[in-house]
Amino acid sequence: xxxxxxxxxxxQKWAPEIKTAVSVKTAPLSASFKRVVKYPLTSExxxxxxxxxxxxxxxxxxxxxxxxxxxxxxxxxxKIKGVNIIRQSGKIKRxxxxxxxxxxxxxxxxxxxxxxxxxISTVK
Length: 124
Fold this sequence. Notes:
Elements: H1 31-36, E1 37-40, H2 44-49, E2 54-59, H3 65-76, E3 80-88, E4 92-95, E5 98-101, E6 105-112
Antiparallel strand pairs: 1-2, 2-6, 3-6, 4-5
């Protein structure tokens, strides 16, 4: 049987349209913001909470609600309705015969006022 080598490029009419990326400028991260907020979480649950105008951020263990509220309001220029904090202890995991522990973390669920929005996809 003869070897069949498919074409490496698609014919022009089937080629997908290439879209150029549009860069969105965000404010540079301040040192105080980096000390409080590590990064926004982009899990399936966090994506579902965005429908209710709630955004999830991983924060430092020493951060409190006031610090989180001030830094997010200042950095994203939004009005915050409330901040809820969850402290998650690290899970114990086995590695063969040995026990290990995943690191503990703290996350903040920030509820924004109606009409406010944060574009998480542009956040570094």
